[in-house]
C-alpha cells in the first residue's frame, strides 16, 4: 500500500447514483457505468444515458491501463494536509478499452519533470481512509 | 416599431466599491460594500435608487434581493433572478436576464450585482467541499479552479504547440493596462517578464501571475430600456447581443472527471456560445473593436480567442505574443482596465463595466472610436455566457 496523498484529504462520498463505482473500487475492480441498451460508456456515473436516454445501466470492467491525456503539477497546497506533499501531479487518464472515458487520478511514480501527455500508465490501487480504495496509476511500458 | 431583443436595452449605470486585496477590507461588511456599489451605479445613471425594481446576479452571490430592497428602502421589487452555474460563467447571463425582464416589460430598472469579500468568507482558491463531482476530484488532490483550468489548458498547449513565452504575453499585457487604471489593485506595480518567470508555480503551467487576484469589493450596473436610457446622464451602452450556452460533456466536466468531448477538451466551453452570440448580433468577431476576456487564469484568454473565432485554431499564442492584445497598438485591445488578473476579481462583472466604459469613451485605456465591445464570462466550471455592447 502506497498512499500518494495524505489520508486526511477528504475521500469519495458515494451517493445513490455512484455507490456501485466506489464499491467496485473497494474490491479493486475498475468498472465504468455503461448503458444497458445501447452499450455506451459514461463517467462519472449518472442516471441516464446521454446517447439514448435509457435509464437501464450496467457496469463494464475495463483493462486498467491507459495514457495520460493531460496533467498538472500542483505546487500550491490548497488543503492543509498537502503542505509537505507538494509538488504532486494530477493526471487525466484516458482508459484503454473505451472510446473516450477518462478518470482524474495521479501517476504515483512519476517525478514532476517526468510526467507527460501520452505516458503509458496502469492501475495501482491505493487504500485510503475507511477502507476506501482509489484508482491511482503507475508508469507502464 | 418593435426592436429585437436585446438591442432595445442598455447598460446605463456603473457602480463600484473600492477594491482591495483579499482580507484588506475589515471595517465594513461585504453587504455594505454591495449597497455602496448599487447606490453608486444609480447615481452614475442619474437615477434615484428607489427607481430600481429588478435584481439580477449569478451563482455564488450571497446577498438576496429582498435584503437589498429592505436596506436601501426600495419600494417595489418586480423581478429577481440568479443564474445557475459556478461563479463567473453566469455573469454575462445575469445581464441577459436583466435585459429580458426589461424587454418583457416586467420591470423597468434592473440592478446587476456581485459582491465578493474573500477575506470575510471562504477563498475560491482553497479546498471547498463539492457535493456533486467532488468524489472524482478531491481524493486525487484536484481542488481548485487553477488546477482544473491547468488541465484543460495543458491539453490545449499540447495540441496547439503553445509556449510559456506566448502565455506570458497575457498577464504582462494586462498588468501594463492596469498601470493606467487607478482603481486597479495592481496599479503602480508594473510586472517584468523576468519577475513573471521567476514567480513560483501554482499549478503547472500556471505561475503566480497567471492566476487572478483575490479581491474584496462589490460591483453593480444598471440595465434599462434604450428609450429610457436616452433621458439619463450617461451615454448608453446598448446590449446588441447576450447569450449563454454549454457544449457536450461539460456539465460534470472540469469539476468532476474531465469527460468533455475529446476534441473540445482544450477549450473554454464556448463554441456553441460564440455561434449563438454572433448570430444574435448579426456581426462577426472581425467587427469587434475591444474585448474583455474572462481571465481568471491567463490561459483562458488564449483558448477563448480561438473559441470565439477571433483567431484560427492554434492562433491564440502567436496572436498574443505579437502584441495584438495590447492597448493602443494591438489589433484587439483586451482587458483594458487590467482584467481579473490585474484590476480586480469580481467574478467578471468588472469586465462588463470596462466593456461599458469603452462604449462611453471613458476607459483609462480608451480604444479610439470604439463601437463594438465584447465581453465573455466564465472559465472552468458551469455554462458560459457573453455580451456584445454597442453605441
Ligand atoms: Zn444508451
From TrEMBL, chain A:
Name of a matching Pfam family: zf-ChsH2
Domain ChsH2 C-terminal OB-fold, first and last residues per copy: 59-126
Start and end residues of each ChsH2 rubredoxin-like zinc ribbon domain: 22-54
PANTHER family the UniProt entry points to: BLR3430 PROTEIN
Protein name: Thiolase
Species lineage: Bacteria, Pseudomonadati, Pseudomonadota, Alphaproteobacteria, Hyphomicrobiales
TrEMBL record, chain B:
Domain of life (superkingdom): Bacteria
InterPro entries named in the record: Thiolase, Thiolase-like, Thiolase_C_2
Pfam families, A to Z: Thiolase_C_1
Gene3D superfamilies: 3.40.47.10
Gene Ontology molecular functions: acetyl-CoA C-acyltransferase activity
Domain Thiolase C-terminal: residue ranges: 262-389
Protein name: Thiolase C-terminal domain-containing protein
Originating species: Xanthobacter tagetidis
